[in-house]
Design goal:
Number of strands: 0
Order of helices and strands: HHHHHHHHHHHHHHH
Number of domains: 2
Shape: globular
Number of helices: 15
Distance between the termini: 19 Å
Helix content: over 70%
Largest sheet: none
Structural class: mainly alpha
Radius of gyration: 22 Å
Strand content: under 5%
Length: about 475
Amino acid sequence: MLRKLSIPNGQASMWRDVRTIAALAWPVLIGQLAVIAFGVIDTAMVGRFSATDLAALGLGSSVYISIYIGLTGILVALQPIAGQLFGAGRESEIGEETRQALWLAVALTVIGFALLFFPEPLLSLAKAPPALHERTVQYLRILSFGLPASLAFRVYSSLTNAVGKPRLVMFLQVGGLLLKFPLNTWFIFGGAGVPALGGPGCALASTLINWVLAAVGMTVLVKFEFFRPFGIFSRFSWPVFRRQVALLRLGIPMGLSYLIEVTSYTFMALFISRFGTTTLAGHQIAGNLGAVLYMTPLAIGIASSTLVSQALGARRFDEAASISRHGIGMACVLAFVYGVILLAARPHIIAAYTPDANVIAAAMPLVLIIVFYHLCDALQITTAFILRAYKVTLVPTIIYAIALWGIGLGGGYLLGFDVGGAVPAWLQGARGFWIANSLSLGVAGVGLFVYWRRVSVRHLDTVDAD
């Protein structure tokens, strides 16, 4: 029998946890919005250069994001490891784990660089015209040289988040955003002796920014007094097999879960594109709204994960359960509030995206679905991050695969394309995919929450046994 989770100090505990989570979440939110703005700026500026370059940006970005998220997701394993060590006061071990994570980043760089510099096997699936293929290859090859810096920065961000210093990531991400526009302008359109590079120009700008961020991040780890007890660069360490295995045991399922999320949405977009440009445009509006709304529960999930991992490291299992419960509740309540606002302002929000009446008509029912979709998304992403704080990753990845690929994509295909001929008209097309995807997130969220309760109770029972 699962025992009932205790609620220390009742309402006072809840508000304390909410305030603590919010203090860590808002810098993460601003940093994530800055990262989203990178893609918005690239799309807006390259779209003014040429349609071919814009198409190459879209194709190249989809390839790059899949590789980048898969690899960086593995490195996020450092966060729960470092967070628990920090909570336990074992600061010198944090330095060793960080060095091991940097070695892992080197190994992952080799894999990622090969895939990005020689992308022809991946691009062959798209069967793009020669001109588009060439520009996409140029774009990806430039980004391949920035991948080592991107992975190093992921190690930096995982460590700083783990020890409760998310502002050190936010400042650099916002600073990178400030550099993005002038560098994009220079490299995309040319000037001062630099030829107009088009789409590959924004890749060059991103690569340079990534190296600046990585260099500044490593300097912060060396110079800031807060990090000195960790001794990250105080001595040299070769890769240690057992530590690498521990990172991979956590990191590979994490990377897979990120990939499952990304590919489930990417394939949904590919299937919806068969219904025509108007339907796809409506889907794009709904998807963009969902992505922006997603940033808030993502930030809450990262902040809650930091606090939970530190509490677990200090063996304060009641506190870890309390923070987990309040973090999940906070994300879901805010998702509900966002949903109410979205319902009230839906026509005005969609009209801000496009004046096209047909696209507005296509987007209206999808944005209505977003209300339920976002609530489910908030539940699943917050719970997933909290489970990672408990160093639990394999079962959540299986839940993701069954829910997002099976129910989301599989169910969406059956509904959207009326497989079997018995699907009502209101469930067909893009709506079928969005409803199935929302249902899949709901199933994933409930499954992850139930599993978190089991894991949490197991830890609480350990205290009782002691």
